[in-house]
Specification:
Helices cover about 10% and strands about 35% of the residues.
């Protein structure tokens, strides 16, 4: 299966592009909605979509679902049991943050412990309802990189995770969506200020991508463009103002963001 790379750029208006051979080729719409090349060609873009115009989040999902505790060593580091079936939660679309963005920490009076969770993310390519695992696996359009930023103290305190996981800027994603990769044959590394914090393998996921998507689609319709974060390996840790974070998945890219202070 050949691999293609897609991004979304801030041109005259937000535009999906295919990246190929040092150029960006604008598309008529999102590639998972059948977008085709318009015939334009923009030179000077590398395989990570770095170039003359700013990169936007490469997805516009109607929903963002995340898998909790999908790696044994991570469940253990937080003192949690391994779930018996996939455990999911939502992040709102307003939490999305593009490549190079700033995660804004809440005021210390709200949370004093915000952590990184480096995750492989899936972009859905087909409407899925009541899907078998085989159909679910085929419905993945491509893969990207995300950070499930989490206010750990609020996650424990609130019961519901709506704000612990859902604050504005708490879902850095991108910079590109890549097709044709095996989601269970990748490594994922998170560095904070250059020091390795997380270094995991997606082959260690408890619940496979196919199992997670089949489980979700049993009760909820997945739609093209929906974003699924697949869980984090061990090594989660705190973020502080001024931190610089890199999450690398070789063959996809490196997601970069920094951390800014909250107000007060
Ligand atoms: Zn997570």
């Amino acid at each position: 299966m050949s691999s293609k790379r897609f991004a979304r750029l801030d041109l005259a208006e937000p535009t999906y592009v295919e990246l190929d051979g040092g150029a960006a080729f604008p598309l008529t719409r999102a590639p998972w909605l059948g977008g085709a090349r318009t015939g334009e060609r923009l030179d000077g873009y590398d395989a990570d979509a770095s170039g003359p115009r700013p990169r936007l989040a490469p997805v516009e999902p109607r929903k963002i679902l995340c898998v909790g505790r999908n790696y044994r060593a991570h469940a253990k580091e937080l003192g949690n049991e391994v779930p018996v079936e996939p455990m999911l939660f939502y992040k709102p679309a307003t939490s999305l943050l593009a490549q190079g963005g700033v995660v804004v920490l809440p005021p210390a009076s709200v949370s004093s412990r915000v952590e990184h969770e480096a995750e492989l993310a899936l972009v859905i390519g087909e409407r899925l309802k009541g899907a078998t695992e085989e159909a679910a696996a085929r419905a993945v359009f491509g893969l990207t990189i995300a950070c499930d930023v989490t206010a750990r103290d609020l996650q424990k305190k609130d019961g519901q995770w709506w704000r612990a996981k859902g604050m504005d800027t708490f879902c850095p994603v991108g910079p590109v969506v890549v097709t044709g990769l095996d989601p269970h044959a990748l490594s994922i590394t998170c560095r904070v200020n250059g020091a390795v914090r997380q270094d995991g393998k997606t082959s260690d996921m408890i619940f496979s991508v196919a199992r997670v998507l089949a489980h979700v689609s049993e009760t909820i319709t997945l739609e093209p463009g929906d974003l699924i974060l697949t869980g984090t390996p061990e090594g989660v840790g705190p973020l502080a103002p001024g931190d610089s974070v890199e999450i690398e998945v070789p063959s996809i890219s490196t997601l970069l963001f920094s951390v800014g202070p909250g107000a007060g």
